[in-house]
């Protein structure tokens, strides 16, 4: 069993509801510091944040549909970095993935990578529940070829569902430790979090971090 402190250092404590207020985001930051998590992840309109000196600041781009032009995603990522984000979670264009246009997926990831170069951490959301296994593998390969740092299961907003242990295991096997794997979407219990970690997740996107962490001990 993974320890509580180990899990905490894997968590992106997340608030991406479109109706989230500045006060709710401030409360998220306070809770993140109290819980000892690694990062907070918020919508780009909430940047810049204050009180995050000991936290990683992550945001999203092309969120949640991914149905944006690549140059729009790139511009959004560049603005987010200028506003203080050190990690960007971008959503791929799912239509490109489901029709096998993985060169185009790679190109849009590369556009965002160019707009938000290292040391900014780039995570690529492939919406794994909407893809078959072959498409998951191809999307991960495209993300890696474009210079991404992580592949990520889900936005948490797609009707097909969120993270699954099967998808995480397949993603982890595909990237072979060269990239991180973030499990996000529907991970609400310690048991589910441990299942994702066992499958190969190196980062967890959680909105209910306190509840999950309560199920772990040091």
UniProtKB/TrEMBL annotation:
Its EC number is 4.1.2.4. It is an enzyme of class 4 (lyase). SMART domains: DeoC. Belongs to the DeoC/FbaB aldolase family. DeoC type 1 subfamily. It is found in: Cytoplasm. PANTHER family: DEOXYRIBOSE-PHOSPHATE ALDOLASE. Keywords: Cytoplasm, Lyase, Schiff base. Catalyzes a reversible aldol reaction between acetaldehyde and D-glyceraldehyde 3-phosphate to generate 2-deoxy-D-ribose 5-phosphate. It catalyses: 2-deoxy-D-ribose 5-phosphate = D-glyceraldehyde 3-phosphate + acetaldehyde. Pathway: Carbohydrate degradation; 2-deoxy-D-ribose 1-phosphate degradation; D-glyceraldehyde 3-phosphate and acetaldehyde from 2-deoxy-alpha-D-ribose 1-phosphate: step 2/2. InterPro entries: Aldolase_TIM, DeoC, DeoC/FbaB/LacD_aldolase, DeoC_typeI. One of its GO terms (molecular function) is deoxyribose-phosphate aldolase activity. The active site is at 89 (proton donor/acceptor), 152 (schiff-base intermediate with acetaldehyde), 182 (proton donor/acceptor). This is Deoxyribose-phosphate aldolase.
């Amino acid at each position: 069993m993974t320890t509580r402190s180990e899990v905490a250092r894997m968590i992106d404590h997340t608030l991406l509801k479109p109706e989230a207020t500045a006060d709710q985001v401030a409360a998220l930051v306070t809770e993140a510091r109290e819980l000892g998590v690694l990062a907070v992840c918020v919508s780009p309109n909430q940047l810049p944040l204050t009180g995050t000196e000991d936290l990683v600041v992550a945001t999203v781009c092309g969120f949640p549909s991914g149905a944006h032009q690549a140059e729009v995603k790139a511009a959004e990522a560049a603005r987010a970095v200028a506003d203080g984000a050190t990690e960007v979670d971008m959503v791929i264009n799912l239509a490109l993935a489901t029709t096998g246009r993985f060169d185009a997926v790679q190109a849009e990831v590369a556009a965002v990578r160019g707009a938000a170069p290292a040391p900014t951490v780039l995570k690529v959301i492939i919406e794994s529940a909407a893809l078959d296994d072959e498409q998951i593998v191809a999307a991960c390969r495209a993300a890696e070829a474009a210079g991404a740092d992580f592949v990520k299961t889900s936005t948490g907003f797609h009707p097909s569902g969120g993270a699954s242990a099967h998808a995480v295991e397949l993603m982890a096997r595909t990237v072979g430790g060269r990239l991180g794997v973030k499990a996000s979407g529907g991970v609400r219990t310690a048991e589910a979090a441990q299942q994702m970690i066992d499958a190969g997740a190196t980062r967890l996107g959680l909105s209910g971090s306190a509840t999950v962490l309560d199920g772990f001990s040091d």
